[in-house]
Design goal:
The complex is a heterodimer of chains A (504) and B (171).
Chain A: E1 6-11, H1 15-31, E2 35-40, H2 48-52, H3 64-78, E3 83-89, E4 92-94, E5 108-110, H4 112-118, E6 121-124, E7 130-131, E8 145-147, H5 148-155, H6 165-168, E9 177-181, H7 185-195, H8 200-203, H9 210-217, E10 223-227, H10 239-247, E11 253-258, H11 260-265, H12 276-289, E12 314-319, E13 322-329, E14 336-346, E15 352-362, E16 365-368, E17 372-373, H13 380-383, E18 387-388, E19 391-392, E20 394-395, E21 398-400, E22 406-412, H14 415-418, H15 424-444, H16 467-483, H17 494-503
Parallel strand pairs in A: 1-2, 1-6, 2-3, 4-5, 6-22, 8-16, 9-10, 9-16, 10-12, 11-12
Antiparallel strand pairs in A: 7-17, 13-14, 14-15, 18-19, 20-21, 21-22
Chain B: H1 2-11, H2 16-32, E1 61-66, E2 72-77, H3 83-89, E3 108-111, H4 113-116, H5 124-130, E4 140-142, E5 155-158
Parallel strand pairs in B: 1-5
Antiparallel strand pairs in B: 1-2, 3-4, 3-5
The chains are: A alpha/beta (504), B alpha+beta (171).
Cofactor (chain B): [2Fe-2S] cluster
Protein name (chain B): Adrenodoxin
InterPro entries (chain B): 2Fe-2S_ferredoxin-like_sf (IPR036010), 2Fe-2S_ferredoxin-type (IPR001041), Adrenodoxin-like (IPR001055), Adrenodoxin_Fe-S_BS (IPR018298), Beta-grasp_dom_sf (IPR012675)
Chain lengths: 504, 171
């Protein structure tokens, strides 16, 4: 092990950044190159979308955090001694983002340029911090239109929005009808929470933000409509999330599907044109739409609903082939009254044509769930880093310059690599592949001069948090949660986190 | 050959319909292939045993993993251990991103068709996750949901390649 250690900086401590680190830690011994890893995080605490994106009733999805914790505790053993240091540097933003958080007075700033000058490898894993929008009038101005990213961040206690007036001063007691635009898994998470908002056993025990849940509990929600631009077969959700909606029947909450395409497909579930996923989806829909006693398979008869479908006052439904074209507010207010949709027609070739006919539906709340959008860092222009629509342009994780040439030592993984697609498992696999490219490049190239240069990176910043700090916060959050009968009670302001650390 | 076969199965991952007809044949051939005499057949001393128990003499069950590079490894294990625990206990490249709680597809394995039917059928939650697995075949299972028992003594499973379907979006 005579080689000089390579210094690796990873920007972002969500699943993509930490899985990239994990693979480097586990595989450094295969190329016999010692490494030092620094993980930069803008929040004082780690885990990104695992902490702030995953639904509170999916705690098992957050188990990846255990892997990351083991990595921080045992990186020497896991790397057979090749990982010399693994540092978490919290409260520190790298490369001023275009949307800076106004809520963290403790934030440090480090220029991406200085990292690229001093580190052998820099990995952009900072995820998607923006929203795809409908771009129709009143979308921003209407007080009852939220993007799913903001809404999810709010109920998950993300520092920037946890106490934001937009949500805390919103009159939840008036919300009966909800519209959700988009039908991906985030849309389904949001739908599930909203229609079952008053079911204590689902949410009371979770790590959902307590103040957010108090607000949500006030809403007498009766219907949630999940609206897609295309038809049933183009639905973006996965079967797990879909099943969870159907299973809400055990709380007296029922579902429906408005789609002639669905009506046709469900008549011949085993048609060869249906793949495995579609067959399972159709069978599930068909069975759950039947009265309990008429279902053919026992797995759809696990829990008898407490009331009949016809007696229920709470419904969710999928509607299709609709594109929102107008947001209508109650006169003289900013409150949502209704949304006007253009009806779409699917052509034989799969393309979509917007027709002239419109429908208008009353809603008290509209959530737009069109996906997370990657944003470039401000320094990208100056550093010649190519950004394409909503992701860092790259080949196999190697970041490209504006002239389409890989920039030595610069990589990207996770959602900022692909523009915001896939679940944690996909992110993990993608991150491993990027880490493999980094290892290949490190093995192939002679020691980068940065390892021997005199340039020093300042990693002792005011108010920066460390992994040990997080372990402390984690312990406190679990204790607080236990006392409240929840699996965790999160700190939702940076101040409260810093106070805990100060008093320790 | 072994390698190429595994790769071919994963490359086709998106095309479940195509797989339905071809995969079992390919996998059957792959899994049934005997190890050539010249090939290194390693019974490995693990670095970490994790929380795996050591089977009592005479009660060992055998399992063979075919790794991504085609290497085969056989272990003596106890009844009741999951395939994920066994793989992780022996440092094979199998992740359980959700900690073995059937909430992801990272411990996907392809089971030798000769043994597949001897495993209790997957529940809905496992099937929901298999929907999302790369390189899905008709004998795919999640390692965290399959427990060793006498009925599957000698089982052979392959770890699928992690092949992404590269699209123009990646470029």
């Amino acid at each position: 092990m005579s080689q000089v250690a390579r210094n690796i900086s990873i920007i972002g401590s969500g699943p993509s950044g930490l899985y990239t680190a994990y693979h480097l830690v586990k595989k450094a011994n295969t190329i016999k190159v010692p490494i030092n890893i620094k993980i930069w995080e803008k929040n004082p605490v780690p885990f990104g979308l695992s902490r702030y994106g995953v639904a509170p009733d999916h705690p098992e999805v957050k188990n990846c955090e255990d892997t990351f914790t083991t990595m921080f505790r045992e990186y020497e053993e896991l790397s057979a001694g090749f990982c010399k240091s693994l540092q978490f540097i919290g409260n520190t933003i790298v490369g001023q983002p275009s949307m800076s958080s106004a809520t963290n007075p403790f934030e440090n700033h480090v220029a991406l340029k200085s990292l690229m000058q001093t580190e052998d490898v820099v990995v952009l894993s900072y995820g998607c911090n923006g929203d795809r929008r409908l771009n129709i009038p009143h979308e921003e101005e209407c007080s009852s239109v939220f993007t799913s990213r903001q809404f999810v961040n709010w109920y998950n206690g993300q520092f920037d929005v946890a106490l934001s007036d937009k949500f805390m001063k919103f009159d939840w007691s008036k919300v009966r009808k909800v519209g959700i635009i988009g039908n991906g898994n985030v849309a389904l998470d949001v739908a599930r929470l909203l229609i079952s908002n008053q079911v204590k056993e689902l949410w009371g025990v979770s790590d959902i933000s307590t103040v957010a849940l108090e607000q949500l509990n006030k809403a007498p929600i009766e219907s949630v409509k999940i609206i897609g631009r295309r038809d049933f077969s183009h639905s973006k959700f996965t079967n797990k999330e879909y099943r969870e909606l159907w299973e809400l029947e055990k709380y007296g909450i029922f579902g429906n599907i408005i789609s002639t395409e669905f009506d046709t497909l469900v008549k011949d579930i085993k048609a060869p044109s249906n793949d495995r996923v579609m067959m399972r989806r159709l069978e599930m829909s068909k069975e759950y739409l039947l009265p309990f006693d008429q279902r053919s398979k026992k797995n759809y008869k696990k829990v008898r609903p407490p009331i009949e479908r016809a007696e229920s006052k709470k419904h969710w439904e999928f509607d299709y082939l609709l594109s929102p074209v107008g947001i209508n507010m109650h006169p003289g207010t900013k409150d949502l009254k209704s949304v006007t949709f253009a009806q779409n027609v699917m052509q034989k070739d799969g393309s979509l044509v917007q027709s002239d006919s419109t429908v208008t539906t009353d809603f008290d709340l509209l959530i737009t769930s069109l996906g997370y959008k990657g944003e470039p860092l401000e320094e990208f222009g100056e550093l010649g880093i190519q950004f394409d629509r909503s992701h860092v342009k790259n080949i196999d994780g190697r970041v490209l310059s504006n002239s389409d040439v890989p920039i030595p030592g610069l990589y990207t993984s996770g959602w900022i690599n692909n523009g915001g697609q896939g679940v944690i498992a996909n992110t993990m696999q993608g991150a491993f592949q990027v880490a493999d490219r980094i290892l290949e490049d490190m093995a192939a190239k002679p020691i980068h001069k940065k390892s021997t240069s005199n340039a020093e990176l300042n990693t002792q910043l005011p108010n920066q948090t460390t992994w040990a700090d997080w372990e402390e916060i984690n312990k406190k959050e679990l204790q607080k949660g236990k006392a409240q009968g929840k699996n965790r009670s999160k700190y939702i302001t940076v101040d409260s986190v810093m106070n805990v650390l100060k008093t320790n | 050959m072994l390698l190429r076969n595994i790769a071919r199965v994963s490359v086709n991952s998106a095309k479940y319909t195509a797989l339905r007809s071809t995969a079992p044949v390919t996998m059957a051939r792959l899994l049934a292939q005997r190890v050539p005499a010249t090939r290194m057949f390693s019974v490995v001393t693990p670095l970490r045993h994790g929380h795996l128990k050591t089977p009592a003499p005479g009660e060992e069950l055998k399992i063979t993993f075919i790794e991504k590079d085609g290497n085969q490894k056989t272990f003596d294990v106890c009844e009741g251990e999951t395939l994920l625990d066994i793989a992780q206990g022996h440092n094979l490249d199998m992740e359980g991103a959700c900690g073995g709680s059937c909430a992801c597809s990272t411990c996907h394995v392809i089971v030798d068709p000769d043994y597949y039917d001897a495993i209790p059928e997957p529940e809905d939650d496992e099937n929901d996750m298999l929907d999302l697995a790369y390189g899905l075949t008709e004998t795919s299972r999640l390692g965290c949901q399959v427990k060793m028992n006498k009925d599957i003594d000698g089982i052979r499973v392959a770890l699928p390649q992690m092949t992404r379907n590269v699209s123009s979006k990646d470029l």
